[in-house]
Design goal:
With 290 residues, this protein is of the alpha/beta class. It has twelve helices and eleven strands.
Length: 290
């Protein structure tokens, strides 16, 4: 399957994630191709363009940033899941049918990248834990979205690749930085030079994903993981996310003041006191993020 392939013979898009329960609230963006919803402290962003294997048009990239920002601002949401509808793809890449109009030369490509930058920034800067729930093809820009998430859970049927060399385009610095950090420079070169696709087992072996589960169990396992995180102390989870992010930076650019602030917040929080009391009383703690 080619990245962003157009399968017009398929039925019109509808949101369907295997074994997904009803939601408490939901909103639609980009003519229904980006959805966001909430359930029990977990927010979900759904790529809902299955007729094109969830290939991302420009308005979908922009809407993704808006959806992530909305869930980030929602005080009830503690974890965000990213998932693809249709059971065939997480995201198959950018919508190639738009390339002639929007990415036909260097100037147009630069403008296209700027318009998608808000999405990348919203996801990269999201203070809440993010989980990519990957079922099917995860290619090109779709793999960048997955790599920007904190955790990647994939079905056994998933496939991964970056076909930039087959399309004559340069994959962006941010995507390659994440790829090298996850799989190392040699494997990053192999994937980029060949444009090859790998299966879920190989992606797990090289560190590109964190868990691989049976396809029928993917949503349930991902939701259980998200709910486990959501039940933990939000400030402690935020402290881990902030500190890991700073560890990954060069020494000169680390914001150790941010690390110190979140450590103090945790130490002075009601949640810290609740955690101690719950442990002594042999009960499950109830955290409020303060």
């Amino acid at each position: 399957m080619k990245q962003g392939s157009d399968t017009r013979s398929q039925p019109s898009p509808r949101c369907e994630i295997r074994n997904r329960p009803a939601v408490q609230s939901s909103s639609s963006l980009a003519d229904g191709k980006i959805l966001h919803s909430t359930l029990d402290g977990v927010g979900t962003v759904t790529f809902n363009n299955p007729a094109k294997h969830n290939a991302m048009s420009l308005d979908m990239w922009v809407a993704l940033g808006e959806a992530v920002s909305a869930l980030t601002a929602d005080p009830e949401v503690r974890v965000i899941i990213l998932a693809g509808a249709g059971g065939k793809a997480f995201i198959s890449g950018a919508d190639i049918s738009q390339f002639e109009e929007l990415r036909h030369n260097a100037e147009a490509t630069a403008q296209y990248a700027l318009q998608g930058a808000a999405m990348r920034k919203a996801l990269d800067d999201c203070p809440k834990p993010t989980i990519a729930c990957i079922d099917g093809f995860c290619l090109g820009g779709g793999l960048l979205v997955a790599m920007l998430a904190d955790v990647r859970v994939a079905s056994e049927a998933s496939r991964f690749g970056i076909p930039a060399a087959k399309l004559g385009v340069a994959y962006g610095y941010q995507g390659l930085e994440r790829l090298v950090a996850l799989v190392g420079p040699s494997r990053a070169r192999l994937l980029m030079f060949t444009g090859m696709q790998i299966d879920a087992a190989e992606a797990l072996q090289m560190g590109l994903v964190d868990q691989v589960v049976g396809t029928s169990n993917l949503w349930r396992n991902t939701m259980q993981l998200a709910q486990t995180i959501a039940e933990n102390a939000p400030l402690a989870v935020a402290a881990a996310k902030i500190t890991v992010a700073q560890i990954l930076r060069d020494d000169a650019s680390r914001d150790m003041e941010a690390v110190r602030r979140i450590e103090l917040q945790c130490a002075n929080s009601d949640d810290f006191r609740e955690g101690r009391r719950a442990f002594m009383e042999k009960r499950r703690p109830v955290f409020h993020g303060c």
